[in-house]
Fold this sequence. Notes:
By secondary structure, the chain is mainly alpha-helical. The protein is built from six helices and three strands, in the order ααβββαααα. The chain has two domains: 53 residues, Signal recognition particle alu RNA binding heterodimer, srp9/1 (2-Layer Sandwich), CATH 3.30.720; 46 residues.
Amino acid sequence: MRKIYLAVILIVLWATAHPSWAAHPIASAKFVDGGTIQVVMNDGRILIVPDDMANRHRRMVAEWVNRGNAIAPADPAPEPTRLEKIRRDPSYPSAHEFMEAQIHCRYDLDCSALDALSSRIKRLKNRYP
């Protein structure tokens, strides 16, 4: 029991000696994907806070902003890789097209559809150097 009282007294004394930490537990805040906010606390914890004022942590961030701080903008989206650009192209063959071409080549011994898909992909690779 005595240890609990001692711990409480030490915490109260420490909080009064560090009023800025007690009053401002947030070190920084930054928007991330989906409109959520990544909050770094003074003690090193990282919180992902939804942008919903019903959330108590979001209200704490709003209070922090009202004290003159700012939420940093989100990092820009990285540039897609060459392979991602090729696969996102609307003319890139679907998985269904690949399967149909492979089945016809394997069982009907007609590989013309597979060759056509291969040349389509080669043209896409030339379009995205």
